[in-house]
Design a protein that fits this description.
The chain has 345 residues and is of the alpha/beta class. The protein has two domains: 156 residues, Four Helix Bundle (Hemerythrin (Met), subunit A) (Up-down Bundle), CATH 1.20.120.1190; 178 residues, Rossmann fold. It is built from eleven helices and six strands. α2 packs antiparallel against α3, α3 packs parallel to α6 and α9 packs parallel to α10.
Amino acid sequence: MEEECLSKALRNVRVWDYAEVREALMSVYSEPVTLAKKVRRKNLMKYLVRVDKTYETLNKVFAVLDVLPNPNTLNPFYAELLAISGITDYKTLYSRLRGFKKVVRKLWRYYRIRVKLALTSEEAKKDLREFIGRSLSVVKRLNKDLKKLEVAINELRKLPCIDFNNLKIVVSGMPQVGKSTLVGRISSSKPEVSPFPFTTKNIISGHLQVDHMRVQVFDTPGILDRPISELNEIEKRALVAIKFLADALIYLIDPRPSGYYTIEQQIDLLQMIKTMFGDKPILVAINKIDETSEERLAEVSKLVKEVCGDEPYKISALKGVGIDSLLEWIKDRSHEFYRARAWGS
C-alpha cells in the first residue's frame, strides 16, 4: 500500500523550481527538430513537435502528484509531522498543484490547435512562444508552493516505512535513557547509539516476530521535561509518534544518579505522558540495572508505582537482562491487538 511506505515512494521524486523549468523550456524552444522525410509542412510541424515537448517537460513538474498522498486520505501522523515542519496548508498546496496542472493542459490543447491551423511558420512560432510564456507564468505563480512542497517531501522522506495494519510499539523517554539500545536489542533495527543527547533526531523503526505476528518497534527522539509549547521540533516528532503511531508504549527510565537527567525529571515526564496518552498500554522499564544499586532501584520503583500503580520492569538493554519479560509483555499486547481486530472485522 502507498501509505505503508510513503518515504520510499518519495525517495526519487524531483521538485522543480521556476528557474529550472524556464531553462528546460528554453532548451525545447531552441533545440533542432528532426522529422521524417514523408512529413508534410515540415516548417510548421516542427513547431507542433516543440509544443508537445514543452507540454511533456511541464508534466514533469506535476509528476509529483502521482506520488503525493491525497490530503483527504492523508494519515493524521503524516499531517501532524508536516505541520511541525511548517507545512500547515498541505491540502491547499496539493489542490493548487492539481488546479494548475489542468490549466497547463488546457493551454497545451489550445496552442496545439492554433499551431496546427497556422498558415505560416512565423504564426506557428508566435503561438509556440505564447504557449511557453503563459506556461512559465503559471509555474512562476506556483514557485512558492513548489518550495513548500519540497520541504514537505524532505520531511516525509525521513520517515521509515510504516505498517499501519500491524501492532506498533513506540519506545519513549528522555534523552540518553537507552531507547536506541533497546530497539536494537529487540528488533531488526540498528539505530545509532551515542553517549550524547539527541543523537536520535528522527523516528526509526525495526520489526520483530511474535508468534507469527509482525510487530513494528519505533525508536523516537528524547523528550525533555518541559511544557509542550517549549518543545523543539525534534521532541515534537516523538510526541506525534506516541499520539498517532503507538498502539502501546514502552517508557524507559535511567535510574542512575549520574544519568543526564534526574529521576524527578523523568518521573514528571512519565506523568505528563500518562496524562496525555493514558488510554494506551504503557510499560515502564527501569533500564541500566547493571549499573544501579538495589537500594536505588527500590527507590525509583517506588516513585514509578506512585504514578502508574504497577511495578516497573527492570532491564539492561545493553546486557540483555530482563528482555525476555519485556518481550512477553509485547507478546500479550500482540494477542490483544489482533483479537481486537478480529472482533472489529
